[in-house]
Amino acid sequence: YINILNRALEEDHSSFCTNKSVDNCGNTDTEGLLVLKDIAAADQGIYVCTATLENVTSSVIRQIQIGEPPVIEKSPISVVARDPPSYVVFEAAARGNPPPVLKWYHNSNEIDFKNTTKMYLTSTGSLIILGPQFEDNGQYKVVADNGAGSVEAAASLTIYFSKCYYYCRE
Predict the structure, then answer these.
(1) Contact 159, 134 (CB under 8 A)
(2) How many CB atoms within 10 Å of residue 114?
(3) Pick from 39, 68, 35, 46: nearest CA to 150
(4) 59 alpha-carbon distance from chain centroid
(5) Which of 57, 81, 154, 167 is a plausible cystine mate for 141, CB 3.0–4.6 Å?
């Protein structure tokens, strides 16, 4: 199988085709090498190399994934409140290829959503803080990572409590 494919490639009886359409089929160079230049996300897909030698045909299928670093599409906005609201939402959204994983940090410590009953991560990547208290004040950072890169955005939470507005300030 491999020998047939290699010999056919050497004799230039090979072609390639993408999963996009028959129009994307073509011949390889004389060494049977497909070179993609200036690749983009549109080049991602399944490529099939077919070689024919002496009426015997062999094919190799390869999937090409194009990594695209994440981009923050929605950044969290800082919140300042005089009395604690019932909840605070830091919105966040990111895209990339593969889709990025979002992690949140409070004052440089990663938030463990499995071990908290007041902080929740939404399906879109936003952070919800229920019943925020003075100890929840500080810097919140979201990091989007997908292996092709990472990007971050930050916002702060500042809550002033009426009963200690002048005494509890940092």
Answers:
(1) yes
(2) 5
(3) 68
(4) 32
(5) 154
Detail the DSSP E strand segments found in 6-161: 14-18, 26-27, 45-53, 56-64, 68-74, 79-81, 87-90, 93-97, 101-106, 109-110, 119-121, 127-130, 138-145, 150-159
Characterize 72-95 residue by residue with b for buried, 16 or more Cβ atoms within 10 angstroms of its Cβ, and e for exposed.
Answer: beeebeebeeeebeeebebbbbbe
Other C-beta atoms lying within 10 Å of the C-beta of residue 68: 18
Domains of the chain by range and CATH?
2-64 (no CATH), 68-164 (2.60.40.10)
Amino acid at 56: V
- In angstroms, the CA 90 to CA 142 distance is 9
The tens digit of pLDDT for each residue in 19-65 reads 444 344 444 455 556 666 777 777 788 877 777 777 777 777 878 77
Tell me, yes or no, if the pTM score tops 0.70. Answer: no
Number of H helices, E strands in the chain: 1, 14
